[in-house]
Amino acid sequence: MNSLNPKSWLIAAGRPVEPGSPLNVPPMPASSYLAGGDRHYSREDGTPTTTALETIVGGLEGGQSLAFSSGMAAAAAVFDTLPTGAHVVMLDEGYQGVAGLAAAGVEKGRWQLQRLAVDDTAAWCNAAETADLLWLESPSNPLLTVADLKAICVAPRQAHALLVVDNTFATPLNQQPLILGADVSMQSATKFIGGHSDLLAGILTVQDVALLDKLRKIRTLGGASPGTLETWLAVRGVRTLALRVERAQDNASQLAYFLESHRAVEKVRYPGLSSHPTHDIAAAQLKGFGTMISFDLKGDAETADELCTRLKLIQHATSLGGVESTIERRGKTPGQEYLPPSLLRLSVGIESFEDLQADLEQALVRA
Ligand SMILES: *Cc1c(COP(=O)(O)O)cnc(C)c1O
């Protein structure tokens, strides 16, 4: 697809080529275009900034991308490809929104749902034989369990079956599911691709042209096309993805060790720690261990809630993947009540490690 190192591709791709053009594709607030050109209506054809974003991310993931108005809109488009009565297999943890979408379809009688543990590789390989849709998220939200994608992607599946990997937590820099044999890689571009907590967008990347066409039709009919401002911001944000991930990942691995040795902490879940249940798979499969850490405090939900309010540099807020570090207690999220009550999910940003450590230390001392 492209011979550049991803770090260079991020900078070089998706730019205008006509002499006299601006270096970056500017936002294009337009719904309709004069007849006879490549675009005629933005809901169908996207705007130039949407195309730029799709070019950049497609090259990173190793396929062709379609951008959506949010990660959930992208996920919903995949589910819309299913015939009535389909057999859906999904991880038993993971992003609560997609799990909610899958459960809503069961209630309406649209499909049947089977849920499997991310690390039960044999069960996934077995289910692949009969599934119409296999939905994985790896590393998963928020336990950061890493699926053995290498094994699951090559397990025999029906010709029409779709194996989807929500690649949001890994980013296409740390993991390329399509190269491993998945059919669809999904990004909530709201997170690392955008990187600044200022937009909502989603991206699907596929290699099969017929599938791309099908998903594009679903996007057009469902009206889930992103706005030009959002995709312009996402392009601007994604240019620094490599720098941001590198720096935040470096912070995260140091913080994981710091937290693991802290007396107020019960358990740290970070794929880079040898104590993580899927550390070996992570080490074999991911280019980096990521910027997300989940840790359980000694104590209860209240202990964890209080810690969030004592942090000063680390923002108490939902979501992840921004330049700013954010933290929240995930068990309070509707749909994630099954989690340990004191589990905190930390999205590590690009601040100085020493400042992040000091902020956690002052808050933990009183925990
Ligand atoms: C945020 C998120 C989504 C949903 O994306 P939105 O952009 O919020 O719609 C899906 N999967 C994962 C892993 C996420 O973190």
Provide a concise account of the structure shown.
By secondary structure, the protein is of the alpha/beta class. It is built from 15 helices and 12 strands.
Trace the largest sheet across and list its strands.
Answer: 1-7-6-5-4-2-3
- Characterize the quaternary organization of these chains: single chain
Can you identify the CATH class of the largest domain? Alpha Beta
> Averaging pLDDT over every residue, what do you get?
97
Query: Helix tally?
Result: 15
Strand content: 15-25%
Q: What is the CATH homology-level superfamily of the largest domain?
A: Type I PLP-dependent aspartate aminotransferase-like (Major domain)
Low-confidence stretches: none
- Per DSSP E runs of 2 or more residues, the count of β-strands stands at 12
Task: Write structural notes for this entry.
It is globular and about 65 Å long. The chain has helices spanning 6-12, 42-45, 48-61, 71-79, 96-107, 121-128, 149-154, 171-174, 177-180, 209-222, 228-238, 241-260, 279-285, 301-310, 353-365; strands spanning 64-68, 86-91, 111-116, 133-137, 162-166, 184-188, 202-206, 265-269, 292-297, 315-316, 326-329, 343-347. With 367 residues, the chain is an alpha/beta fold. Helix 5 (96-107) links the parallel strand 2 and strand 3 (111-116). It starts with 5 loop residues before the first helix and ends with a helix. The model has no long low-confidence stretch (mean pLDDT 97). The protein has two domains: 6-238, Aspartate Aminotransferase, domain 2 (3-Layer(aba) Sandwich); 241-366, Alpha-Beta Complex (Aspartate Aminotransferase, domain 1). 49% of the residues are buried. It contains 15 helices and twelve strands. Pyridoxal-5'-phosphate binds next to helix 4 and helix 5.
